Amino acid sequence: MLPFLLAAQFGLQTQLMETRTNVVIHGCSFADANGARVQCVLIEPRGKKGKHAGVVYQHGGGQTMMNYISEAAMLAESGVVAMIIDPPGRGRPNDMQTMNGAQIRDWMFEVAAAGSRAIDILLARGDVDPARIGFVGHSYGANAAAIIGARDGRPSSYVLIGGTDRFSEHMRTSEAEFWTVYRRRADLDATLELVKAADAANFLPALKARAVLVQCAKFDLPDLMKSCPAVYETLRSKKRIEWYPIDHAFADAKAAVDRIEFLRR
Asked: In Å, what is the CA distance from 191 to each residue of 98, 101, 102, 220?
């Protein structure tokens, strides 16, 4: 009965990917508030009864859902139900070259709304404890986490990976070729003014959580090495910051272990 209700309420579709000794992995998708399909991976403990903790992962640019499957599976072995989501309209981050300020702003809010919808689905299962919800966001996923923390408030723990407090300023100053090309547009100032509405700095002070882990990269782009600690400073919740000798992709075992141990605690 439960799958039927989730399908009816959220358009949730699942397909078994793999069954392991202690974990079951499903490919999935659901409908966001605008009716667009959001692709996801659902990883749940096998053979564990009772209430579980829940974690939502939102990857960032240059990543896919696959980046977090092993990590989420380790959590599932501890009894956690995890959902890894793509942003709405997969591929749209790569389409930003053609998006104006209003479109980028709205898309960033849509990413956050998809994260909240993922939390809705986890809680609607009935076996996830609403007092033990975590959210992990990388890059624009960290920006989505800030919005969720202020507007939704259900997660009690957050991991913010390689985030920036002012995405609009990142667009203006980043040395990344993507944004260098984007800045050639004639309406740049008007575009960035619109994007400011979605900047994490607007939401981080209102994010309330039992604990927040901020992860920064020592070899990130220069503007992100400055703004990642600014994310930490802007937070008013109990917080911790860690630096790693890696770049923005965060392909680092210690960073993953730190996230797992933080979320388990």
From this structure: 12, 4, 7, 25
**pLDDT(4) > 70:** no
Task: Please count the structural domains in the chain.
Answer: 1
What is the CATH classification number for the domain harbouring 66? 3.40.50.1820
* Nearest one of 257, 84, 56, 251 to 158, comparing CA atoms: 56
Tokens, residue 109:
């809010």
**Domain that includes residue 245, residue range:** 2-264
| Residue 48 pLDDT grade (very low, low, confident, very high; cuts 50, 70, 90) | confident
| Burial annotation 238-255 (CB, 10 A radius, 16+ → b, else e) | ebebeebebbbbbeeeeb
pLDDT in tens, 55-77: 999 999 889 999 999 999 999 99
Taking every pair of Cα atoms in the chain, the longest distance, rounded to a whole number of angstroms, is 58
pLDDT at 13 over 70: yes
